[in-house]
Amino acid sequence: MENESGFVKQVKLCGAEIPEVREKISDLLTAQDAAKIDLEGAFGEVMIKISSDGENARETVKAAVRELKVRFGSSIYTTKKSVSLEQTIVDLLKEQKMTVSTVESCTGGMISARLTDVPGCSEVFRQGFVTYSDRAKRKMVGVKKSTLKKYTAVSEQTAKEMAKGGAFMAESDACVSVTGYAGPDGGENGDPVGLVYVGCCVHGNVEVEEYHFAGDRAAVREQAVIRALTLLRKCILENYDI
Fold first, then answer.
1. How far is CA 54 from CA 34, 49, 117, 239, in A?
2. Does residue 240 register a pLDDT over 90?
3. For the segment 126-166, what is each residue's pLDDT rounded down to a tens digit?
4. Positive or negative CA dihedral for 79, 80, 85, 90?
5. Average pLDDT of the chain?
């Protein structure tokens, strides 16, 4: 994007935090006569703003963008300012002619809300399950009673069964699940506030990630949503049919 002061471009990452991004590009941040780089974002999303007002501003910025693509690869989900993470996911699903569903506990429907905010999502979104109680997890998406009893509702095993069960019940190609302790209380077994498991099932293949988020209830929930969308995108790409 050109303006009166030069040329500007954005690079958006998911599944990353500002400190680790800053460390990975520390040489670019301190290089003289290079593009100016600013970082902003939170909760697992980072926007890198690259700008230059030099004589060869466009070429300088584009060279920096190329270098960022080399360093961050598929963690970059767009270079367009107006495009959101959920928009890229919906676009990927459409390209692959895939459908998606969600199974949410601690996030209470926030993931499905983000996806359905995208115009045209009805082409790919099958169903959203909010399974806040153990009973709902069993009745709505088939989580085993024995799993809940042995491992609790906030566990890798439960997140896995939520994702598989949601895909089966909604007859969707992909399903993302979230279960965790958003606060103010943790688990009766001593598990802390901020412990969250995110699961994703694509074509029967399931991945589960464990997180320990910091912050208040709202912050934990927002981080869980972004990490769930990030894992969903990652799993779709891993099953991408060119």
1. 9, 16, 39, 42
2. no
3. 999 999 999 999 999 999 999 999 999 999 999 999 999 99
4. negative
5. 95
Of the candidates 116, 136, 181, the one whose C-alpha atom is nearest the C-alpha of residue 155 is 181
For residue 191, give both structure tokens. Answer: 């598990």
Cα Rg of the chain, angstroms: 20
63-100 as b/e: b if 16+ CB within 10 A: ebbebbeeebeebbbbeeeeebbbbbbbebbeebebbb
Tell the residue number behind the tokens 């934990």, with chain if given. Answer: 220
Measured distance CA(169)–CA(171) in Å, rounded: 6
Question: Per-residue pLDDT tens for 225-236?
Answer: 999 999 999 999
Written as one string, the DSSP assignment of 117-133 is TSTTGGGTEEEEEE--S
Which has the higher per-residue pLDDT, 6 or 125?
Answer: 125
Please give the average per-residue pLDDT across 11-33, as a whole number. Answer: 93
Q: Alpha-carbon distance 103 to 167, whole Å?
A: 9
Summarize the confidence of residues 92-96 as an average pLDDT: 97
Q: In the numeric block, which tokens belong to residue 104?
A: 């949410």
84 token code pair: 């959101």
Helix (H) or strand (E) holding 207: strand 205-212
